[in-house]
Amino acid sequence: MDQQYFLCWRVVPLLLLMPCGLQCMSVHILAEQPVHVIPGSSLLLKARIEPGPLEKVSTITWEREPETGKAPVRVTLATCPGGSQNCVGRRPSVHVNVDQQEATLQINGYSRADSGVYAVTVTDHTGANTTAHCIVREYEAVHHVSVSINVSHSLLICGEAWGTDPHFSWLHERVAITKAVGRVSKDGATLFVSMTPICGHFTCLVSNKLGHSSATYSAAPCETEGRGTMAAVVCLSLLLLFGGVVTFLLLRRHRQSKRGERLHEHLDDTI
Ligand SMILES: *[C@@H]1O[C@H](CO)[C@@H](O)[C@H](O)[C@H]1NC(C)=O
Asked: Of 176, 192, 218, which closes a domain?
């Protein structure tokens, strides 16, 4: 009894798989996911269809549903019934095409509302469906760049909120980072500072296809050699000035006391 039960469970899935063994149709979307589209530009999705030797493609359908939400509503964008020549988009901005084993969907004037999970479904002559999915999102500009410092490890960390594909670069006092200043991590977001003490302005610049944004961390001003000399000169001048004033005051006092003595002598004479 147990043996039979066991066999049954081994055999049934095999039987279910059998019809699909060699001649199963496959479809997949040729894109690195998620696909990001700049608003106003065109979305182009390509799907590769490989029918089995005994199968014929009967209908291709493109649909979209929101990526999130409790009750996602599926929208049909286009269908290609009865072969490749009869493709119709449901909107003027939607264009579809089928070329040998490739189906394409193009949406012009992409907007945020066009984001979602796209599905291409291929139906064969027996009515069996095969579907491939692709996530499509809006390409977002760089947002909220910030620089924070990790004092114990001499790290500067650049943060960015939700921009698509951000690229990081660093400047120290408005020039590219040199070895004397530090080293940038592989992803670019961290700067390992080697200069001690950490001084001056560190700027993180984040950019993508839509523009760039930056943030600056300001440490104490750097004591450059030029400034040191300047400070010495100012100090020396102040010292000389002070010395001069003191000498002048002493001399004046000396002269005053002499004049006082002379007056005294003069008075003595007249008496
Ligand atoms: C500083 O960086 C080190 C190494 O990445 C980490 O372990 C530590 O928690 C960081 N400290 C702070 C205050 O973030």
From this structure: 218
Q: Is residue 11 situated within a structural domain?
A: no
Output the six-digit token pair for 66: 């929101």
165 located within any domain? yes
Query: b/e string for 34-49 if b means 16 or more Cβ within 10 A?
Result: ebbbbeeeebebbbeb
- What would the pLDDT profile of 96-124 be if each residue is shown by its tens digit? 999 878 999 999 999 999 999 999 999 98
The CATH number of residue 201's host domain is: 2.60.40.10
| Structural element, H or E, at residue 102 | strand 102-107
Task: Give tens-digit pLDDT for 236-255.
Answer: 777 777 667 767 677 777 77
Q: What is the mean pLDDT of residues 206-233?
A: 83
Complete DSSP assignment for 20-73: GTTT--EEEE-SPSSEEE-TTS-EEEEEEEE--TT--EEEEEEEEE-SS-SSPP
Q: Cα(236) to centroid of ligand 1, in Å?
A: 45
Q: Look up residue 32 and give its DSSP letter.
A: P
Ligand 1 atom at minimum distance from 150 CA? 1
- Whether the CB-CB separation of 130 and 51 falls below 8 Å is answered with no
The closest of 148, 155, 150, 185 to 169, measured between CA atoms, is 185
Distance separating alpha carbons of residues 82 and 212, to the nearest angstrom: 48
**How far apart are the CA of 59 and the centre of ligand 1, in A?**
56
Q: How far is the CA of 239 from the centre of ligand 1 (A)?
A: 48
Q: Which residues surround ligand 1 with Cβ inside 6 Å?
A: 150, 152-153, 155
Same domain, 209 and 193: yes
Give the residue numbers spanning the domain of 72: 22-138
Determine if the pTM surpasses 0.85: no
